[in-house]
Amino acid sequence: MLLQKRLKLLIIILLSLLVINTFNACEKDDDTVKPEKKETSDKPKEDKKEQDDEEDGITLYSVDGYNITKKTDYKVSGKLLELQKDSKKHTEIWNLVSKIIPKGYMTFFNEYLIITGEESGVAGFVVQTREDLTKWKIGVAIDMAYQGGFNTDGELSYTIIHEFGHTLTLNNVQVDSKRNSDNCSNYFTGEGCAKEGSYINVLFQKFWKDIHDQFLDTGDDESKKQAFYEKYKDRFVTQYASTNPGEDIAEVFTHFVIKDKPTGNTIANQKVKILYEYPELIELRNHIRESLRIGTKSKSAPVIKVWKRGSTIGKKGQKRS
């Protein structure tokens, strides 16, 4: 009898332990955190870009070819609210963008952002909206576009050509976004590894490679950057071009478009001349010049003067300005 009682007690204890373990197992199953879905590599990092837009954004449009559709009006007030409501100005700026950028290249753009440049001093920018560099956003500062009147001294035209130069030289045809700096023997743009025959890699290998270590040594020190420019100023079409190779080629492209072919032989002139070796860039140059009537005696032709930002050095940032 004593043995039977002990066996019954043991069975009760074992059953109790089994029930407790089963309960705990169920509890763990309920608390398991499901893995978050990861975005594919060709999608933009929406949260980061939305935060960037909200900092200086006024109105965001989606782009489909030459057509734009309003997506978002950001929260603004006072003078900026007036600029937000002035959709005619938004369209006037976009019409100039459309006049400058040929249809075949408009496929790279899927967003157009009206911004304010009053505080930042940024007249325009581009930034990739897809990590594979197939789609880009172009931003234009509406307050700066109308300083002294619309496109005074061709300042806005210059800005748009410069920003287009970034997309032209940093898109997926030119740069491999899947290769990081550790796996890149060419120039690493930040967006990815420049392809062997890309415009920016050719410029870097010919005109930057021998001074790149000195450039890197300047870091974020503005006095060192200024000294770097002064030492090599004959290599740059503007001071802004000395910011980095990306800004350099955007400035070189702009001068290639708006100015006559240089006759001198400085390194700055050589950079511009090298673009004449690409038939597709000559065709692009001709399109923009004809659209803006540059080089003609037409009264409507803009007299594009030296870019106001050309005498400054750019700052580091995610966006290409």
In short:
By secondary structure, this protein is an alpha+beta fold. The chain has 13 helices and seven strands.
Write the layout of secondary structure elements.
Elements: H1 2-31, H2 46-56, E1 57-64, E2 67-73, H3 78-85, H4 87-100, H5 103-106, E3 109-115, E4 124-128, E5 136-141, H6 142-145, H7 155-170, E6 175-176, E7 193-194, H8 199-207, H9 212-217, H10 222-231, H11 245-258, H12 267-275, H13 279-292
Parallel strand pairs: 3-5
Antiparallel strand pairs: 1-2, 1-3, 4-5, 6-7
Helix pairs in contact: 7-11, 11-12
What this model shows, in words?
By secondary structure, the protein is of the alpha+beta class. It has 2 domains: 125 residues, no CATH class; 131 residues, no CATH class. Strand 4 and strand 5 form a beta hairpin. The longest helix is centred in the N-terminal third of the chain and has 30 residues.
Helical fraction: 40-55%
Structural class call reads alpha+beta
Query: What is the residue-averaged pLDDT?
Result: 85
What is the subunit arrangement here? single chain
Main pleated-sheet profile? 5 strands, mixed
The number of distinct helices, counting runs of at least 4 residues, comes to 13
Order of SSEs, N→C? HHEEHHHEEEHHEEHHHHHH
Low-confidence stretches: 22-48
Return Rg in Å.
Answer: 28 Å
**Rough shape?**
globular
Roughly how many Å apart are the termini? Answer: 92 Å
Strand residue content: 5-15%
| Structural domains: how many | 2
Number of strands: 7
Q: How is the largest sheet built, in terms of strand order?
A: 2-1-3-5-4
